[in-house]
Specification:
about 250 residues; alpha/beta; Rossmann fold; 7-stranded parallel sheet; 7 strands; globular
Length: about 250
């Protein structure tokens, strides 16, 4: 007599069902991949980005509820967007502009101000206008980096700009509670934005370098960051914290 086993099917309940996620910088890279992941978990998504054509293409791909073509650094436009939302939202991810690199003495005063304050000002503007529209327990998610923790001539002011984000995030989490505030600190992520810093040959060389040196043995991609972002949205015990995702890059660089 032989025993038969019945396979067990585990049903995965969508973890963001009935929730709305706003992706600022949602037409490409990490923002778009997070939109895909959030949709797979049952969320409605609203995409915000500068380029109207790319935005519409992304919206069609993920089935976005709506879009807004605007420059997020324009506070007036940002305020109009959030004030115009017809219903409350749950989560906001801000991918923001990438860092700028270069020797300190080659930067003028405006560049210094932009580099030191740009990310914090954008995050604060989003927080100020988004939080009143958010349900309790939702999260504001900002992007930082781990690479900027190193000091070098080539990185310029990037380490200083990187260092301010974790305490800023923690302080903002206290002020906005019960809305949560968290920071994702990424290393190199293989996105179009990261590619823009390299020539094609340089990009391939960087990928190969990371494959051979990172403890994880591969390059971090936008799907990795999206998975972390959605986890932070889902887990309502997480606030005021910084979550590194760089495949161990900061330890071997």
């Amino acid at each position: 007599m032989t025993a038969t086993t019945t396979p067990v099917t585990i049903q995965h309940e969508p973890q963001l069902l009935g929730q709305t996620v706003v992706l600022i910088g949602g037409s490409a890279g990490i923002g778009l991949e997070t939109a895909r992941r959030a949709r797979a978990e049952g969320a409605e998504v609203i995409l915000v980005a500068r380029d109207p054509d790319r935005l519409q293409a992304a919206a069609r791909e993920v089935g976005a509820r709506t879009t807004a073509a605007l420059d997020a650094t324009d506070e007036a436009a940002l305020a109009r967007f959030f004030e115009g939302l017809p219903e409350p939202i749950d989560h906001v991810l801000v991918t923001g502009p990438g860092p700028s690199y270069g020797p300190l003495l080659e930067m003028d005063a405006d560049q210094v101000r932009d580099e030191l304050a740009g990310h914090v000002v954008l995050a604060l503007d989003v927080a100020r206008h988004a939080a009143p529209r958010m349900r309790p327990g939702g999260t504001l998610l900002f992007m930082g980096g781990t690479g900027g923790r190193r000091i070098s001539r080539q990185l310029g002011l990037a380490p200083a700009a990187t260092a301010v984000l974790p305490p800023f995030t923690s302080a903002l989490a206290l002020e906005l509670a019960p809305v949560r505030v968290n920071l994702i600190a990424a290393g190199f992520v293989d996105t179009p934005l990261s590619a823009s810093y390299f020539s094609q040959e340089g990009l391939e060389a960087r990928r190969e370098e990371l494959r051979t040196t990172l403890p994880i043995g591969r390059v971090v991609g936008p799907t990795d960051v999206a998975a972390l972002a959605v986890h932070i949205m889902v887990n309502t015990a997480l606030t005021g914290a910084t979550y590194d995702i760089d495949g161990g890059q900061q330890f071997v660089a």
